[in-house]
Design goal:
alpha/beta, 7-stranded mixed sheet, globular
């Protein structure tokens, strides 16, 4: 196997790793399915309040591509249709049954099935939504033929779920899935492994795939970074990606004929009293997680009491869903951190800070390479002028010009955006740039705005 060494990047050493044990199987009372989890989707509602549904039944579809629907992960009754301003659909809430009743699909033998057969069952079940297209990070178009399909077999983000643990019993299902996905491309199916421990990875056991080893700090596990090194995307080219947890779901669909999104979710962060893994489905309420793991005692920073931020995903690019929110469709991690709502007197002048992590040598964290730190969400100041500092290039191992790309996006210059790499990135690829940015700019939001502009203008 080829080994690609990445020297640029940064590992955030945070307290609150998930212990490698399953705490509990969560049977949710209410599951929330949110259209906002899916980028570039305009939902058309298909169910009404009080309606009885099964797992795998469509709740809404995409008005622009009506063949793509979005299914319920549980059976039960539609408890509420949540709408916002101008009747925008925010969520469909389902009162879940204790025992899930699945809508039954016809299982397929992948060796005998055609691409159209596999495409049909993925579309009919709602599992097509798990296949993501680069560029833009949107749900793939079923009519396209990608030049490659790329799967990252590890997550290098802070406090990330350990895929070697969560998917160790799903090798057979994932093999079925990669054999099926291979029928959609004339190129290769790439599986990219962590060079540090690839022999323990269940994805290392897969056959009929092209394996590559990646070594280096975060974002080595980001699929966008991996694509830029093994099959860069040019104008007019398409690459599909899929998270390994959805490989297992596709394998179960093709072999058993059921829409089963059950997954192990890592509950992390120093504000969780008990960290570990919880077996559940996407859309499970944060309150249900909170009851299982508990939360740590009140934390005071600089004399001010700090609340808890509940993040669906990792601390760098996850979504702040709040205490009354729910787990996102694509997420296998829940992070509990302290809210950074304090002000520190003369904080800019303090050099010796043993409890603070620094991405540079500003503090003394570089003298303790194995020490882990409690993280909070304080940005230590407000937004400042956008300057050329050279810090982005130190943590972004991609062959693009990040500052020039961001300025092209702010100027809405599509030609420059193309030249500087808009086809290769989505917001999560810039998460570390946002973390180290001295200007405190919401870089991920800017990148997503650029992608929205491209989708609008290039449609």
């Amino acid at each position: 196997m080829e080994t690609i060494r990445l020297r640029k990047g940064l590992n955030l050493r945070l307290k609150g790793d998930a212990q490698k044990k399953v705490l509990q199987a969560l049977v949710p009372e209410v599951v929330s399915v949110k259209p906002s989890d899916y980028k570039n989707v305009i939902p058309k509602l298909l169910v009404t309040e009080g309606e009885t549904i099964k797992a795998g039944q469509f709740l809404f579809l995409d008005k622009k591509r009506p063949q793509i629907g979005f299914s319920s992960p549980v059976s039960g009754k539609v408890k509420a249709i949540v709408r916002g301003e101008k009747r925008k659909l925010l969520a469909v809430e389902i009162a879940a049954d204790t025992d899930t009743q699945y809508l039954q699909f016809q299982p397929l033998s992948v060796s005998k099935a055609s691409r159209l057969d596999i495409q049909k069952i993925l579309l009919d079940s709602g599992l097509w939504a798990c296949i993501i297209q680069r560029p833009y990070g949107i749900i793939a178009n079923p009519e396209d033929t990608p030049k490659a399909i790329v799967i990252s077999a590890f997550n290098s983000g802070p406090l990330a779920a350990d895929i070697n643990f969560t998917l160790k019993n799903d090798v057979d299902a994932m093999q079925i899935a990669v054999d099926a996905l291979a029928k959609f491309t004339n190129g290769k199916v790439y599986v990219n492994l962590n060079a540090e421990n690839y022999t323990a990875s269940p994805l290392n056991m897969l056959n009929n795939v092209e394996k590559t080893l990646f070594r280096g700090p975060h974002p080595a596990g980001n699929v966008g970074v991996q694509i830029s090194h093994i099959c860069p995307i040019g104008k007019g080219e398409i690459v599909w990606t899929i998270h390994p947890q959805f490989l297992a779901a596709i394998g179960r669909l093709l072999s058993k004929g059921i829409y089963d999104l059950t997954r192990l979710v890592a509950v992390t962060g120093h504000r969780a009293k008990n960290t570990g893994y919880i077996k559940c489905v996407p859309g499970s309420s944060i309150q249900a997680f909170k009851e299982i793991v508990g939360t740590s005692e009140i934390e005071k920073l600089y004399g001010q009491e700090c609340g808890i931020r509940y993040i669906s995903g990792n601390p760098l690019n996850g979504e702040n869903v709040g205490e009354n929110g729910s787990l996102g469709f694509y997420d296998d991690q829940l992070t509990l951190l302290s809210e950074g709502n304090y002000r520190e007197l003369f904080g800019w002048a303090k050099i010796f800070r043993p409890k603070k992590f620094s991405s540079s040598a500003t503090y003394f964290s570089w003298l303790c390479p194995k020490k882990k730190y409690k993280a909070d969400t304080n940005i230590n100041g407000g937004e400042r002028a956008f300057i050329v500092s050279g810090v982005y290039e130190k943590v972004l191992p991609m062959d693009i010009y990040p500052v020039f790309l961001l300025k092209a996006i702010l100027a809405a210059d599509i030609e420059k955006m193309e030249q500087f790499g808009i086809y290769e990135v989505i917001g999560e690829d810039f998460a570390l740039c946002e973390y180290v940015d001295p200007s405190k700019i919401e870089i991920q939001k800017i990148v997503e705005q650029g992608i929205d502009l491209m989708l609008k203008e290039m449609a």
